[in-house]
Structure formats: C-alpha cells, structure tokens
Specification:
A hairpin with a 2-residue loop joins strand 4 and strand 5. The chain is rod-shaped and about 150 Å long. Helix 5 runs parallel beside helix 9, helix 6 runs parallel beside helix 7 and helix 7 packs antiparallel against helix 9. The protein has 3 domains: 148 residues, 2-Layer Sandwich (Beta-Lactamase); 100 residues, Helix Hairpins, CATH 1.10.287; 157 residues, Histidine kinase-like ATPase, C-terminal domain (Heat Shock Protein 90, 2-Layer Sandwich). It has 9 helices and 12 strands. By secondary structure, it is an alpha+beta fold.
Length: 453
Amino acid sequence: MRRRISLRARITIGSTLVAVLLLAGASAIVYAHLTGIVADKERAILHGITEVYRGAIQEDPNERFPPPGVKQHVAIVAPDGTERMNTFPAGLLDRATEIIAEGPRLQHVRAGSKTFFVYVDPVETADGTWYVLATRDTDIAEDVLSDVVRLMVLVLAAGALVFAAGSWFVAGAALRPVDHMRRSAQTLVVSRRGELLPVGDAHDDLADLARTLNDLLERMRAATDRERQMVSDASHELRNPLAVLQAQFELIDGSDAAADATAIREARATLARLTRIADSLLQLSRIDAVGDAGSATAEHLVDAVTDRIDRLRLQSSERTPGRNVDLDFVIDVADDRVRLRVRADDFTRIIDNLVDNALSAAESEDVRILVSLAVTSDGARLAVSDDAGGFDPEVADRAFERFVRGRAPSYSGSGLGLAIVAGLAEKSGGEALIENRQGVGATVVVTFGVADD
C-alpha cells in the first residue's frame, strides 16, 4: 500500500531539494575558488624557497647547499640524475624522479595519509638542467581546507533544515485556504441552494479556483435539477399512457370482436405514443451526452431538406387523410461549400420535429407549412412557418422546455419535440426562437454557426 504524502510535504521536500542543490553548487564553487587561492599561495611560497637554491646553483653548484627552513623540504637533482640534496619526508623521499617526470609545475602529491604541494623548478646551467623540488608540511593548508569543508557541510545541513522549516510553514500558510475549502466541501450538499465554497478577499489563484469550483457546483446543481425534473416529468408522462394501455388491454375479453378490435387499435395508438416519448427521451439524452455537434456542408443540408420534405409530404397524406396539408420549401444558399456546425441527421431531425409540431397544432384543420433555409458565410437560418393559429401566450414563453404542450384536447405530442430542437440548436452554436402570431400562425427559427476548420 502506497503511503500518502500530503501536498504540503511534497512542496517542502521539493523546495528543500532545490535549495540543497543550489547550496551544494555554491559550496562547490566556493571550495574550488578557495582551493585555487591555497594553491596559488603554496606556489608563491615554494617558488620563494626554490629561488634561494636556484641562485646557489647558478653561482656555484659545487658548494654545499644550505638546509631549508623549519617544515620546509627541498630536493636537488643534478643533470646526471644525482640527488645533491633530499630532505623530503618519508613518503616523498624516493619519489623525486617520479615527480620531475610529471613536469615543472606545482603538483598535488599524495603520500600515505597526507597530501603535499610539491613545486618543481628547473634551473638551466651550462652543464645541463638542474631540478629544485620544494615542499613543506601542508598541515596548515590541509587543516584550512578541512575546516572549510566541515563548515560548508554544517552550513549546508543547517541551511537545508532552516529552509525545510520555512518551506513547511510557508506552504502551510499558502495552503490554509485550500484546507478550508476542502473542509467546506465536505459539508456541502449538491442539492442545497446557497451553499458555496468560501472565496477569499485576495485576487489570487486560490480565489480563482474557488470561483471556478463554485461555478461548477452551480452548474452541477442546475443539471441535477434538470435531471430530477426530467425524471419527474417523464414518470408522469409515461404513467398516464401506461395506465391507459393497461385499461385498454383489460377491455379485450373476446366477448365482442368489434369492441376488441377497437380496443386493440386504440392500444396500438397508445403504444405508438409511448414509443415516441421513449424515442424523444433517448434523443435528449444523446444531445446531453455528445459534446461534438459535428458538421456538414450547405450542399448536404440542401439535399437533406429536399429529401426530407418529399418524405414528409407522403407521411402527412397518410397521417391526415381528408386534410389539405400544403408543405413546401424555399432555399437560398450563397455558397454551398460553407460548412456548418450540425450533422445532416440532426438537421433532418429538427425539420421532422418542427413540421410534426405544426401538424399537431393544426389539429384536424387544413394547414400550410413553409420550410425556409438560408445559408450565408456567417451561418445558416432554418425557419418553419405555419398558419395553424400560433402558440398560446402562456405556452409560447416556455415552448422549448421539456414536456410543455399546447392545451388543445386533440394535441397528441409528447412536449419534447421543441426541446430537442432547442438542444440541437444550442449544441450547434446557434439558438431557437419563436415568432408567434396569435390567432394566425407561428414561425420557429433555428440558427446554426459556421464550423471551425
């Protein structure tokens, strides 16, 4: 099981690691610079020692060389390889030739547990090249470097602890509003209005987060309300037809064939209504679930209009025998290559619902329905007009809500057709509106946006 690490701890660990890396880098730079200073100092001191013997060699190499000072060590090698003088400590005593082979420079030579700076100074004479090697007990320099290293480690550890403690408290102070929001969120009830996350007075990222979450909470509540209302309305709308269907089946007892045939015919009509309601609810759920509206060219929409109107003419003549249904269309397209934010099947579904709504509003009267499509480079406008008397004033304002139906007793719609139209229009970047002419007719206008390339 993985151990949970709080955000505060992760911030503290991460910032402390960054601080340690920065301090370690700075310490390395300081140590390298200090080592260079110590090396330069040693080179200057040892060069001063070799200068004394350089002068003696150039003046008379056969004379006895004076001994070096306290804690100083000198080795002098003649051109023939003879050691004329060697006061090196035990670890370096027999390594003069090896050190000379490394070149005339300041060398860092390890001897056992000690480290020595050895300076090799060549002296050119008529007899050849003499070499003067100088070193000294470097305990002081090594002690200084060791003390510096210990001090740097101590500063690094102390700095890491101080920075970790500071980061812990700073992160805690910065995350305190988040913890407050978390505790508040635990007590929130999605369905309860008015309860929101606290928003601080500061205009910072946490306040923006709280506002975003509050907006999400409001939208969730609105969606929950819509879902609850839809379930309630759907239950109510389905309960009545189911009760009617049950009663109609109970009337079929086989005693009267004519009555049984009438009951079966009415039951089929009720079942068809239930099927239409279920299909409409399914369409609404798909509209809510699918985020992409899709796209189609104006040419495809024109083909969809002409094909659908032909089919609706045939269906209306079969649906309303004895009625005069004048169904026509007008198309005005500036550019048939314009791509619009609506699928062709959704577009035909909108036409179906609007024409069906107009036919239902006309009851058993003759009706004239005109479908108009206009497409420009800015979008499309679909309008379905009828002369069926228009919407009731109290219904017109809520016609796009779910399960809102006209008051006509013969109206057989489910009250979902215009809700489907409004949902598809909104998903397509447009809108749906009603131009109502009370007592004359109505026009439902649906607009569609242009699809992004």
